[in-house]
Specification:
Elements lengths: L18 H15 L15 H30 L2 H6 L3 H9 L6 H30 L9 E3 L6 H14 L5 H29 L12 H20 L1 H12 L1 H10 L5 H18 L1 E3 L8
Antiparallel strand pairs: 1-2
Length: about 290
C-alpha cells in the first residue's frame, strides 16, 4: 500500500510530548512485547539452558520486534488516527479495509495468538509459585505435583485464581499500568541484584555473562519506567506499590517467623493434607546424592 502511494495517514503530527503520558504509553507498548522474561522461568525444562536460553532470546526478540513494528506500519498506512481511536480492534479494522471477504481470518488468527500467549503465560507463571513454595516462601502445598499428570496443579490453580481476581476491573489500561509497574519493579530489582553480585561476589560461577554496559543501561530505562509513572498515574502505580508492600508482613509471619506455636503448625499441616487429598498431589521427589 505504501508502494501505491497510501501514505496520507502515515504522519506523526500533533504528537503529545508529555513525558508522563509517554511513559504510560510505553507501558502499553511494552505489554505487547512481554514474554521475553518468562523464558528464564523454565530453565529447568530446557535442554542445555546456558546455550539455548540466550539463543532463544537472540532469535525470538528480533523476529517479534520486526513483525510488530511492521504490523503497526501497515495499520498507520491506511487507518486514520480518528478511526484508530474509535476502533475496538485495530487489526480487525485493518482486515476489513484490506482483505475484503477474507477479513474473518484476522479475528481467527488473533484468537489463536491469544490462546498461545495465555498457554505460555500459564506454563511459566505457574512455576513462579511452584518454585517459590519449594524455596519456603509460600505454603508447601503450592510446591506439590499431581500424581497422575505430574503437573504443579496447586500452583496452576493459584495462578488462575489470581488471574480471575484481576478481572474485577473493567478498565484494561488501569490493569496494564498496574501490572506493568509491578513487573518492571521486579525486573529492576533483579537487575540491581545482578549488578550488586557482580561487585560483591566477582568469583561466582557465571555460565551466562554480559558486559556491564548492558544491565546498567537497562536499569536506567527501568528506573524511568518506574519513577515517571508514579507521577503520571499515581493512583494505579500507588496501588500497585502498596500491594507489593503488603507482602512484607505476610513474608515476616509466614517465612521469617520460624518459632510458630504448635497449634499454628498443626493447622497449616491439616490444611496441607486436606489440599493433597482434594487435588491428589504429593511433594516433589528430590535427588539424594552420596556424600
Amino acid at each position: 500500500m505504501i508502494g501505491q502511494g497510501e501514505v496520507e495517514y502515515f504522519t506523526f503530527e500533533n504528537t503529545n510530548a508529555d513525558v508522563g503520558k509517554m511513559s504510560l504509553a510505553l507501558y502499553s507498548g511494552l505489554f505487547a512485547y512481554a514474554g521475553w522474561n518468562f523464558l528464564n522461568f523454565v530453565t529447568e525444562e530446557m535442554i542445555d539452558p546456558y546455550k539455548n536460553l540466550p539463543r532463544a532470546i537472540y532469535i525470538s526478540i528480533p523476529i517479534v520486534s520486526f513483525v510488530y513494528v511492521f504490523a503497526n506500519v501497515a495499520y498507520m498506512t491506511i487507518i486514520s488516527p480518528r478511526e484508530m481511536l474509535d476502533s475496538n480492534a485495530v487489526a480487525v479494522t485493518f482486515g476489513d479495509k484490506v482483505f475484503g471477504v477474507m477479513a474473518w481470518i484476522v479475528p481467527v488468527f488473533v484468537s489463536l495468538s491469544t490462546f498461545g500467549g495465555v498457554n505460555g503465560l500459564l506454563f511459566t507463571s505457574g512455576r513462579l509459585f511452584f518454585v517459590g513454595a519449594r524455596e519456603g516462601h509460600l505454603p508447601d502445598f503450592l510446591s506439590m505435583i499431581q500424581v497422575n499428570r505430574r503437573t504443579p496443579m496447586p500452583a496452576m490453580l493459584f495462578t488462575g485464581g489470581l488471574s480471575i481476581l484481576m478481572l474485577i476491573t473493567d478498565d484494561v489500561f488501569f490493569l496494564i499500568n498496574y501490572m506493568s509497574f509491578v513487573q518492571w519493579l521486579s525486573v529492576g530489582m533483579s537487575i540491581a541484584a545482578l549488578l550488586y553480585l557482580r561487585y560483591a561476589r566477582p568469583e561466582m560461577y557465571r555460565p551466562i555473562k554480559f558486559n556491564l554496559v548492558i544491565p546498567i543501561t537497562f536499569l536506567l530505562c527501568v528506573i524511568f519506567l518506574l519513577v515517571v509513572p508514579l507521577y503520571a498515574a499515581t493512583e494505579q502505580t500507588g496501588m500497585a506499590l502498596l500491594m507489593v508492600l503488603s507482602g512484607l508482613p505476610v513474608y515476616v509471619l509466614g517465612v521469617k517467623w520460624k518459632s510458630k506455636p504448635k497449634s499454628v503448625r498443626q493447622f497449616i499441616a491439616s490444611c496441607t493434607i486436606l489440599g493433597q487429598k482434594c487435588c491428589n498431589v504429593v511433594a516433589q521427589e528430590t535427588e539424594v546424592k552420596d556424600s
